Structure to design on (393 residues):
């Protein structure tokens, strides 16, 4: 057989299980409406939660940075690739999150992969939520520490695992703050208390929550700190991305100055990857300014999402434990999920079906990403289209 002959067989196997994914056509820009199949369609497939991906102010800042600092950086940050905009953005991030220091990564996937494997190694232990993002899971795999997975949001099992694992040298608890498919929040108050009790490091990934949750947009940690002001200092490591609500690209970590120094020495995805274009740093700083100056974006967004969930419940849709702008419609089988997604698309709504391996088997869902740019009319007509597209009972 041809060396690559197995690929066709594997693809056919995916297709038979309704799990084959195909790339959608390229889009001009992210937005609440996009052009697809030759017409305008309402887009619920994006994580551009604050509607900043095409914001004129980000575009202007990025264009100016290209003019002033060029496009490519030519080297990793440790060598010579760090731009003025990166230096500024790291200080801006640390001030925004009120941590000693911050460090930019090429993406937040790279941040998770590099950070976790720089924190723990053989003889250490990691404790992670079963629904953590793939980048966290891959970071755990790279780390060679022992991995303990607790059921989604189950602090009782986490505590039991921590109690049984006192012999490890270092211990790390790592969790998404806002889960990317279920749209629910990690029980961070309880997790932080356990981290303190068992002297574990606590790392929280705020990828979907930055700019959306918290009075100042710092995320779920800030949101939950309303009940316990100590929470923010109890989360030792905060990871995030500029690629979702902040409208551009790139990952980051906010933590102690010492740990930033360690990561810039030891996180392989930092050390061995070329620095981001300066334009990305410039756009990121403007996005943080907007999060500071325009809190109404996040307030209205969460109100809108709550109203939508309410209306969906009235009509019998199951949105699981969602409490955010990520609203899943739990369907179950991949085939039925994709059929519903297709029917919505025919009616002018792009709502992607999510199948394994992004979700567990039998947990396929339609994922609705609500953004500040969605109007009430768009959400109303989505609810109607869902009624029409629903399978006859
Ligand atoms: C999207 C996501 C990432 C990856 O972010 P990128 O910057 O796009 O690589 C990491 N963690 C979580 C929880 C995410 O949802």
């Amino acid at each position: 057989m041809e060396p690559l002959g197995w690929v066709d067989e594997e693809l056919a196997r995916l297709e038979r299980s309704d799990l084959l994914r195909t790339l959608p056509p390229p889009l001009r820009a992210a937005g609440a409406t996009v052009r697809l199949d030759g017409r305008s369609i309402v887009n619920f497939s994006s994580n551009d939660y604050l509607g900043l991906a095409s914001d004129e102010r980000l575009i202007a800042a990025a264009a100016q940075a290209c003019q002033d600092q060029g496009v490519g950086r030519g080297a990793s940050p440790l060598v010579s690739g760090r731009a003025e905009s990166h230096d500024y953005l790291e200080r801006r991030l640390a001030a925004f999150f009120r941590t000693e220091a911050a460090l930019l990564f090429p993406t937040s996937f790279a941040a998770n992969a590099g950070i976790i494997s720089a924190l723990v190694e053989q003889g250490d232990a990691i404790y992670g939520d079963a629904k953590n993002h793939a980048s966290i899971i891959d970071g755990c795999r790279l780390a060679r520490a022992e991995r303990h997975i607790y059921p989604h949001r189950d602090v009782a099992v986490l505590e039991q695992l921590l109690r049984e694992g006192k012999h490890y040298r270092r211990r790390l608890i790592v969790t998404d703050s806002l889960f990317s498919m279920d749209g629910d929040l990690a029980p961070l108050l309880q997790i932080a208390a356990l981290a303190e009790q068992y002297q574990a490091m606590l790392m929280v990934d705020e990828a979907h929550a930055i700019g959306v949750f918290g009075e100042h947009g710092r995320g779920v940690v800030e949101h939950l700190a309303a009940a316990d002001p100590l929470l923010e200092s109890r989360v030792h490591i905060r990871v995030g991305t500029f690629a979702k609500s902040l409208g551009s690209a790139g990952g980051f970590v906010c933590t102690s100055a010492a740990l930033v120094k360690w990561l810039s020495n030891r996180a392989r995805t930092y050390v061995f990857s070329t620095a981001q274009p300066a334009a990305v740093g410039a756009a990121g700083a403007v996005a943080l300014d907007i999060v500071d100056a325009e809190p109404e974006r996040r307030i209205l967004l969460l109100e809108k999402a709550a109203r939508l969930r309410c209306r969906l419940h009235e009509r019998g849709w199951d949105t699981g434990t969602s409490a955010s702008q990520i609203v899943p419609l739990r369907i179950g089988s991949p085939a039925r999920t994709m059929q519903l997604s297709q029917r919505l698309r025919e009616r002018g709504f792009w709502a992607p079906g999510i199948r394994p391996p992004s979700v567990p088997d039998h947990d396929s869902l339609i994922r609705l990403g609500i953004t500040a740019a969605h109007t009430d009319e768009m959400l109303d007509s989505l609810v109607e289209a869902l009624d029409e597209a629903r399978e006859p009972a």
Summary: The longest helix spans residues 296-314.
